[in-house]
Amino acid sequence: MKDINSAPGSTSFSAFWNELCAYTRQGMAALRAMSWPMLLACCLGLAFLITILPLAIMLFVLVMLLRWASNSDDMGTDAETKAANSSQSPQ
């Protein structure tokens, strides 16, 4: 007897799997059609995207956070210094 109530998500997973297999087949066909120098260039570009680009973005964010932290610290000391200088009586 056939189950008339299929599990939720089973059709969407099947469609996803079929699409993933189709994209994989297209990618393998594209790799087979490439020449060796073009394949090397694609590998180097992929290695750049996977390793160097995220590292550069992370270092940029880290430097920006450090600059922001150092600027906010300077503002706090300036305000405290001005408050301390204004509260002192002239001699």
Mean pLDDT: 83
How much strand content do the residues show? Answer: under 5%
Poorly predicted parts: none
Head-to-tail CA distance between termini: 101 Å
From N to C, what is the helix and strand string? HH
Structural class: mainly alpha
- How large is the count of helical segments? 2
Number of strands: 0
Percent of residues in helices comes to over 70%
Q: What is the overall shape?
A: elongated
Question: Rounded to an integer, what's the Rg over CA atoms?
Answer: 30 Å
Biggest sheet: strands, sense, closure? none
Summarize the helices and strands and which ones pair or pack.
Blueprint lengths: L9 H24 L2 H52 L4
Summarize, please.
This protein has 91 residues and is an all-alpha fold. It contains 2 helices and no strands.
Please provide a written account of the structure.
With 91 residues, this protein is mostly helical. The chain is built from 2 helices and no strands. It has helices at residues 10-33, 36-87. It is elongated, with a radius of gyration of 30 Å. The chain starts with 9 loop residues before the first helix and ends with a helix.
